[in-house]
UniProtKB/TrEMBL annotation:
This is Pyrrolidone-carboxylate peptidase. GO terms for biological process: proteolysis. Keywords: Cytoplasm, Hydrolase, Protease, Thiol protease. CDD domains: Peptidase_C15. Homotetramer. It catalyses: Release of an N-terminal pyroglutamyl group from a polypeptide, the second amino acid generally not being Pro. Its EC number is 3.4.19.3.
Length: 215
C-alpha cells in the first residue's frame, strides 16, 4: 500500500485575509514521491485546532503528518525541532481567546521532539535554492499548540505516524501591506512542502527496510 501524508495549514488570523499555509496546501499535488496526500485547514483556535487535527488524522490514517503555519518576520523556512507544553498568546486567537502561561496538555511532558528528519530536509531545501534552517522555538501561539498536540497524539496515545511542523514566511502581498517584512513566493512555499514530504517519505522507507532486516 502507498504511504499517506496529512498536511495541514491554518486559516487567516490577526486581521489578515490570507494565510500562506492554507494557500500552499491547497496547491499540493495529490501524489508526491509515492505519497498519497491528504490536506486539512485548521482553525487558528486553541480550543478547536487540535480537535480538527485529530479528526483529520482519524480520517486519513497517515504515515506522515506535516503541520504548516505562518511565522511572520522569519526570513527562511523553519523546520521546528521541539514543541513545548505552554500556551502564551501575544494576540487573541480567532475565538477571541488569549491564554497566558497555560499548558497545552495538563500533566503532559514539558516538551516533545519532532520525528521527521529535519536536518536532512533542511539540507535538501538548501540544495534546491530555498533558505531554510532548523528552528528550536515554535513560539507559544496556536502553531506550537498544534505541534505539541500532534506529537502528544503520537507519544502518549499510540497513533503510528511521524510528525513535525514547518513555519513559513509571509507571502509577498502580506509583506507589501505590512512594510519591511521578509516574504517568500507561494510557488516556493509549495515546492518546499513537497521537498520536506519527499525527504521524510524516503527516510521512512529506509527505516522500514532497516527494521525488516533486523527482524
Amino acid at each position: 500500500m502507498a504511504m499517506k501524508a496529512l498536511v495541514t495549514g491554518f486559516d487567516a488570523f490577526g486581521g489578515d485575509k490570507v494565510n500562506p499555509s492554507s494557500a500552499a496546501i491547497g496547491r499540493l499535488k495529490r501524489r508526491i514521491s509515492g505519497l498519497v496526500i491528504h490536506t486539512a485547514v485548521l482553525p487558528t483556535s486553541y480550543a478547536r485546532s487540535a480537535i480538527t487535527l485529530r479528526g483529520a488524522i482519524h480520517e486519513a490514517r497517515p504515515d506522515i503528518v506535516l503541520c504548516v503555519g505562518q511565522a511572520g518576520g522569519r526570513r527562511e523556512l523553519s523546520l521546528e525541532r521541539v514543541a513545548i507544553n505552554i500556551q502564551d498568546a501575544r494576540i487573541r486567537d480567532n475565538d477571541g481567546k488569549q491564554p497566558i502561561d497555560r499548558p497545552v496538555v495538563r500533566g503532559g511532558p514539558a516538551a516533545y521532539f519532532t520525528s521527521l528528519p529535519i536536518k536532512a530536509c533542511v539540507a535538501e531545501l538548501r540544495r534546491a535554492g530555498l533558505p531554510a534552517a532548523v528552528s528550536n522555538s515554535a513560539g507559544t501561539f496556536v502553531c506550537n499548540h498544534v505541534f505539541y498536540a500532534l506529537m502528544d497524539m503520537a507519544g502518549r496515545h499510540g497513533l503510528a505516524f511521524r510528525g513535525g511542523f514547518l513555519h513559513i514566511p509571509y507571502l509577498p502581498e502580506q509583506a507589501a501591506r505590512l512594510g519591511d517584512q521578509p516574504s517568500m513566493s507561494l510557488d516556493d512555499i509549495v515546492r518546499a512542502i513537497e521537498i520536506v514530504l519527499a525527504v521524510s517519505a524516503a527516510r521512512s522507507e529506509d527505516l522500514h527496510t532497516a527494521e525488516g532486516r533486523i527482524s
